[in-house]
Amino acid sequence: MKAKALAAIGVAVFPVREKPERADGRIFEMKTPYTRSGHLEATTDARQIEQWWSRWPDALVGVNAGRSGLVTADIDMGDGHDGWNTLIENGLDDLPETAHYQTNRGGDHYVYAAPSDVRLSGTKGHVTPDGLKLEDVDRRGGSSYFIWWGNEIPATRDAFGEPPAWLLTPAAEPTESPYSGTVGEWLQRAPEGSPSWSMADVVNSIPRDSDFGHSELISFQASIVALAANGETGAVEALEILKREWLRGEYDTPVYRDDWDAGLAGAIRKFGDFPDKPIDILAQDQVSIATRVTTPGFIDIWTTLPAVTTAPALRDRLGRIMTLAYDSSLTALEAATLAWHSPAAKHANGIRSTQSDGEALDAVWKLALEVAGSPVLEEGAYLADVEPAAPVQAVPDLLPTRSIKLLTDAEAARVVNLSWWGDEFMDVMRKANRDVISEQIYRLNRWVILSLCFSHRAIIPMVDGADIILNFYGVVVGGSKVGKSRATKPVTEISKLFWEEVYNPDIGGDATKAGLTDALIALDGLPTYFHPDEADAILLAWKDIKGPFAGMSQFITDVYLGDVKATLRATKDNSGKHAQARLNAILSGIQHQITDAIDPKDWETGFINRFVWAFGERKQLTREQKRPNIKRKGADASAVDLAAWYQQWVARFNATLRTTLDVEPGEKFAWIDMTDEVADRHVETLETLERIAASGPYEDRLDPTFGRLQETILKCAALVAITNNRRCIQMDDYLLALEQAEEWASNIVTLVEATDESPMARRANRLVRLIEKNGGRMPLTEIHRNPEYAGRSRDVKQILDELTAQGRAELLDLRSQQGQQVVSLIRGGRQ
């Protein structure tokens, strides 16, 4: 066995995956360790090695470089890499003799004996001692690892030659970076996660079987703290290991504990300052910063746009703002903050409008660092050419939405740095659809997916018994090319896969009250997905008290709370039966048609105000995006495999059901709690929504609608907590839910304003605007040919009757002269 043969000459080995696999709801890439602690478990123990390879007989052999006393030159080749060319160009290709072999991708590993007097680490794009960076040449040393691809094993360690000097660049020593906070504050800010390679390198060098003194302790603490301050993960775990070894056995005394505390406090104070990051821009007060810029004319430059507003001209303006900030001795963070809040950054062609907030923050930060070295002494002269359109651009298809802010600036900055399953879902959907998706629709659908997987198992319990169930009612608004149907696919596919051995949650969208009642009774207590299309017709049909859908509005309203009441109006088999429902109802349709079906009073009835709204976008596509997105065998490995993602997510959700949402004996549901901090923050949200509702003319409509929205916020927060495998809503969970609620609240205000008039008045005003565009007169046949009115002769007649009754239009019979009727607007007619 290769692993045992290597161990016999003192090479510490561990098992590594030979191919990608899914386990415990996660996807593990090839060359990742099988063992929980990875290369830190590497050993020369023959019995342990036999146990590992009995369990994983096809595992690759991983080698812990530092523990084995080895350092390896890893020369990458293929897939655009050419490490040998780098070595040849720099005259370093004459490598000393040593054990070597070819890797699986055609590269080479040259394995040398590591010197004992130099602390090494793993590097990517190795930098030689004289500062030369070697592209596609990596070093595996210290607590990094490599795969032993070769079939031949040296008989003795004599096969490992002396390494070339250029491979022996010492690992970086910590540099001073003062920190003024407490130890507890520092530990909270330290990057989370398991130890990175550099951090593990330090951990691996901590003595386990021998004593070490105060100076060694201080050195270890300083190294760990400095690495964390520079973004390396795993400091908390590393410090715990170091503390355990420092206080081992007889050394666990008050004196040694004081030594530990004093040493750690000193290391943090000296080396622990975290460098400014792009996200810190959002936490700065730009006004107070601006008052410290003393250069004459700065305020004009900061608060105005350049004469030409192309992207290069706007970028120059940002550079000039930063230069003036540096001239007044401001920091890079302060210069970037001023640029971020300037009109030049916010312009449609500016750095903030052409990319996501995260990307824009990175871009502004990068520019600030560039300008620090290359000041913009004057702005360039630019021609006012029209900038080319962005590859994907929304085509105006909807009313402009209002912007509601529920997060504070500090909270918004915090949210940017958070991640959860919903972000992963959105990233995968963008990649699978080549960035051509209606973001709001997919954001709504991610909550529906989580509801279909978890709402049968979890509730937010309330003292008054009105428990909050985790379901959603929504309306997807947009034209025929916004991707409504495509966005539905992840919902149906993931929920079907999740419930494949039980039932299909998708109950379609064409059901009467009796039919929907039957379906919900049959699926008592299980999540369901009801998704009618042509929402305008559906809403009107549900209002018809005599039609086949009579009573649907009230039924949908009642079922929202989770109860299917016993009724004598269902089928005979189900008459008198009571059931629990977890109904997710998502309607979809075209905006002006949906608004025509909504009366202003509908917002006050308890039906419409249960829905959240998602606006779709039509996109202008590049030629590449217009090409059929065909899936081919042997395609690029970077292509998104949606089926694999769906399986991974379903496995993860099932694991959450078995653990986090395991119901306690005697209980029907897992209770989702929240911290007092979250409860207090939710009160602030309610008060904000109340102020927004009371600040305009629509309080009677917005107040009940926002009342429902606040419950929806808690539902979202609960689902975020569940995906993070906890039953108690933490502040991060709540803020992510609040971020989504800002979008929904804005859309609600937009729709309330759009439905201010009666549906007939809105339809009449739209027809008047169409006729005005045609000079105040328009042949009736042309009106019928217009896409909005094609096939709607009865509606057109009703609208014309209304306009005639209002004295705003008349129908002229000009058949004798022109062979047609003409609609003519009457000047001064009643509006």
Task: Write a compact overview of the structure shown.
With 831 residues, this protein is of the alpha+beta class. 43% of the residues lie in helices and 12% in strands. The longest helix is centred in the last third of the chain and has 25 residues, at 699-723.
3D architecture notes:
By secondary structure, the chain is α+β, with helices and mostly antiparallel strands. It folds into 5 domains: 2-167, no CATH class; 183-271, no CATH class; 278-388, no CATH class; 409-627 and 639-754, 3-Layer(aba) Sandwich (Rossmann fold), CATH 3.40.50; 759-825, Arc Repressor Mutant, subunit A (Orthogonal Bundle). 43% of the residues lie in helices and 12% in strands. The chain has 32 helices and 27 strands. A 4-stranded antiparallel sheet has the order 8-9-5-10. Strands 16-19-15-20 form a 4-stranded parallel sheet. The chain has a 3-stranded antiparallel sheet with strand order 1-4-11. Helix 12 (311-327) packs across helix 13 (332-340) and helix 16 (409-416) crosses helix 28 (731-754). It is globular. The protein starts with a helix and ends in a 6-residue tail after the last strand.
Return the average pLDDT rounded to an integer. 84
Quick one: CATH superfamily of the largest domain? P-loop containing nucleotide triphosphate hydrolases
Helix content: 40-55%
Task: Report the radius of gyration as a whole number of Å.
Answer: 33 Å
**Termini, distance in Å?**
91 Å
Shape: globular
Main beta sheet = 4 strands, antiparallel
Write the layout of secondary structure elements.
Blueprint: H1 2-8, E1 13-16, E2 21-23, E3 26-28, H2 46-55, E4 60-64, H3 65-68, E5 70-75, E6 77-78, E7 81-82, H4 83-89, E8 99-102, E9 108-113, E10 137-140, E11 145-147, H5 183-189, H6 197-204, H7 214-229, H8 235-246, H9 254-271, H10 286-290, H11 298-303, H12 311-327, H13 332-340, H14 343-346, H15 357-373, E12 393-395, H16 409-416, H17 421-432, H18 439-454, E13 458-460, E14 468-469, E15 473-477, H19 484-498, H20 513-522, E16 527-530, H21 535-543, H22 552-559, E17 563-564, E18 579-580, E19 582-589, H23 591-596, E20 611-615, E21 618-620, H24 623-626, H25 642-658, E22 670-671, E23 673-674, H26 676-694, H27 699-723, E24 728-729, H28 731-754, H29 759-773, E25 777-779, H30 780-785, H31 793-805, E26 809-813, H32 815-818, E27 821-825
Helix pairs in contact: 6-8, 7-8, 7-9, 12-13, 12-15, 13-15, 16-28, 17-18, 18-19, 19-25, 26-27, 27-28, 29-31
